[in-house]
# Entry
Amino acid sequence: MEDPTARFNEWLALAKQTPTIKEPTAMTLATATLDGTPAARIVLLKESNENGFVFYGNMESRKFTELKANPRAALCFHWMPLERQVRIEGTVVPVSDAEADAYYNSRPRERQLGAWASQQSRPLANREELEARNAEFEKKFEGQAVPRPPHWSGWRLTPLSIEFWINSDVRLHEREIYRRANATSPWQHGLMYP
Ligand SMILES: Cc1cc2nc3c(=O)[nH]c(=O)nc-3n(C[C@H](O)[C@H](O)[C@H](O)COP(=O)(O)O)c2cc1C
# Structure
């Protein structure tokens, strides 16, 4: 059975080679509260391999608070110029501190400072307040490396289903789905009505 993550990576590589796709790693991340209220937003995919799909942000944000309470998520990519969509569903766990450090340390300094300045998903009185917080942390870490804030990290999604959708002609699109019961069981593959 073909590994659907390898297939996903082939599609992602194609998206990265397509000049009109500005953010090939941008994906919709859907979460839900325990009482079933859904929410969706765009985040960037930072890793995809047999270990899963990794994304980063503020652990105190709405999305990650929801993942803490209900560690299941759905991802959706749409590469419009390629006329392709990929939907991924599964369970999530936080990445290790070592992994989060490695990725955080690779980010530009302004982004590292931004992770300190932003109290993501909390009300902000005005733009000046955010700029003042940014300046405060710029000063605090002047002349030294910016450490990863304790509230900034990532999650790894272990896929239990991956669905590939491609526009094949005007009416009859192709839709293929890979499913497995858990992370160690074999993938089952099938077609779906588009
Ligand atoms: C192209 C794009 C990329 C983004 N990438 C991320 C990201 O990697 N991590 C992140 O936390 N937010 C990212 N955001 C912002 C989120 O969409 C969202 O506004 C933020 O995470 C707060 O969401 P929440 O309140 O549901 O937690 C991105 C937004 C856009 C439009």
The CA atoms of residues 97 and 153 lie 8 Å apart. Residues 4-191 form a domain with the Pnp Oxidase; Chain A fold (CATH 2.30.110.10). The two ends are 22 Å apart (CA to CA).
